[in-house]
Amino acid sequence: MTRQELFTNIKKKRSFLCVGLDTDITKIPSHLHKEQDPIFEFNKQIIDATADVTVAYKPNIAFYEALGPKGWESLQKTLDYIPNDIFTIADAKRGDIGNTSALYARAFFEAMSFDSITVAPYMGRDSVKPFLQFDGKWVILLGLTSNEGFADFQNEPMADGKKLFEKVITTSQQWGSADNMMYVVGATRGEMFKEVRALAPEHFLLVPGIGAQGGDLEATCKYGMNSQCGLLVNSARGIIYAGNGVDFAEKAKLAATDLQQQMDEMLEKYL
Ligand SMILES: O=c1ccn([C@@H]2O[C@H](COP(=O)(O)O)[C@@H](O)[C@H]2O)c(=O)[nH]1
């Protein structure tokens, strides 16, 4: 999917919502356990309930690989079920020496057909570039993460006075462009979106941290939105576990629609 197609979907749905499919077998409603593949059945119902207000789905791979081969099967079925016009993100946070990264890329872009993958940048250029060799696919580099520990390294000044996340964002622009690279910036980072936008005005940002982590949608949009919206805002637990009974999908739909309506207002205000 191209940047323009992503923006067209955002305008059409008045939404830049990314639903996180962080499906935990211990948290899904008990009535689903009688199904042959409870994880897929849960995801299927979540997708049916939220697809009309959603522009991206982001399964976090940990939730699937923790279940072994059966988890990978549920992931593949989920990916196949997501409508073609919705952007897919493998939140896998991969990255290794070049030949290994090349195989991670094949796993998620060829064996599975995700549109994008999250990549940890800290092994540098040869660990990231293999993911950028696939036409129409995207790398989403960790920039400024949503968790408390972001301050340990990402926000630390380096010898040249630049913070590590600034260095990641500027240097990585030599490897890819706004048409095949995005950055992860947490919704908990507030005004720091200004610093990110000064360095990457055109790139899309994947923004986790809304909902369960208490991130701020208004600040994210005020400081982070660009002329093509430039934001994919993720919520997982806040949507998929909005309910825990037989009506879990309806509750998820309400939570997703509530967020979409706030996004509609943000688009009106800041785009
Ligand atoms: O900085 C980051 C990077 C990734 N994540 C991931 O996003 C979701 C957030 O889930 P919620 O339930 O909406 O909190 C999850 O998959 C994280 O691994 C992040 O939170 N922060």
UniProtKB/TrEMBL annotation:
SMART domains (UniProt xref): OMPdecase (SM00934)
Residue intervals of the Orotidine 5'-phosphate decarboxylase domain: 16-252
Keywords: Decarboxylase, Lyase, Pyrimidine biosynthesis
One protein family per Pfam: OMPdecase
Record's protein name: Orotidine-5'-phosphate decarboxylase
EC number: 4.1.1.23
Record field: catalytic activity: orotidine 5'-phosphate + H(+) = UMP + CO2
Family statement drawn from the similarity comment of this UniProt entry: Belongs to the OMP decarboxylase family. Type 2 subfamily.
GO MF annotations in UniProt: orotidine-5'-phosphate decarboxylase activity
CDD domains noted in UniProt: OMP_decarboxylase_like
Family annotation (NCBIfam families): pyrF_sub2 (TIGR02127)
Pathway it works in: Pyrimidine metabolism; UMP biosynthesis via de novo pathway; UMP from orotate: step 2/2
Record-linked InterPro entries: Aldolase_TIM, OMPdecase_type-2, OMPdeCOase_dom, RibuloseP-bd_barrel
